[in-house]
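so im writing up the methods section and need the Lipoprotein record in one place, dumping it here so i stop losing it
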Amino acid sequence: MRAAILLLALLVCPGCALSVLQRQDSLKVALGERGTEPYVSVFKPHDPLTMSVAFGCDTRVVSAMVSLLVPLPPVIPGWLFNDKPGFFANVQLPVGAESLLEHMSVTTVYGDTYRFSDLKPDAPSVRREPGRVSLRVDVSCLEFEHGVLVIDPFEYQGVRYPGSRVRLRTQSRYEFHFGYLSAEAQPGAAPASFVAVRRDGYVASAL
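--- predicted struct ---
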């Protein structure tokens, strides 16, 4: 959808100004009540196993605008440009221990649980570091405000490890970008790709 809209804008108004308001969300482990002391690491009970989870949230377009010459405030709703919301859970496990994904999950504040073993790996054909798995969760990061990351009790190589959990928090940062429509393709992109390039060379990755 967003590629079709951008292509139409290029055909109607090549070289026109483009302004975009983006929202970058983040999903992290919550801090303690004082805001400075973090909770006990959810992975601490599992030392010396190599385990970690990092979340990568999608950048969302809040609004955009195409105009002649001078960039105008973005007023076109962002849902015209956005794909289905979601984020990635980048999991590091001991090499050959992917079965531990069955014991890891994230739960929203509403009680919806997403077990890591049920999620599809992102780009399984891409070679990654041993023990590292990237999983796609087709839900907005914001759904996990006050949610929890849970590790159930499990046994690995004859050792029994306890369960643990940690609360999650979200943050959002807004950014405004403006540029000019161009049919120049990004390096490595398909020839039919279109990007918005600012006069200073900035490439607007939102579209």
